[in-house]
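Give me the fold.
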Amino acid sequence: MSVFLKTRITAVGPEVADLAEGGVLILFADGAPEELAEVSVLHAVVDGPSDDAPVPGTRVSIGDGVSAEVTAMGDAAWNKVREIGHVVVNFNGATAVERPGEICASVVEPDKLVAALKTDAVITIGA
């Protein structure tokens, strides 16, 4: 399996931990408006994003402590990643998304997710 996206966390908004405790991660590329940056993990792409979208079963890793698998992909989610570096990852294990711009992934421990969201940690979708 190839790497669909590899990106480095550049900043973590002050409201990110609250969302992560609920299993929600919002990614935005560096330069996001301030009101979005408050709830987002800002990132700088290292590799990708690929033209093809990840499929269910694709690995998602965050830092050294969090690993999950994609369980569902919204119709618009990967286009948003490619165009503006934005996506919502919901670690709820759902096999169908509620919103077209969302990626669902397997459930992870909230405290491990919060701990993994640190500046310079790498987020990888794919192998």
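Residues 80 and 86 are 6 Å apart (CA to CA).
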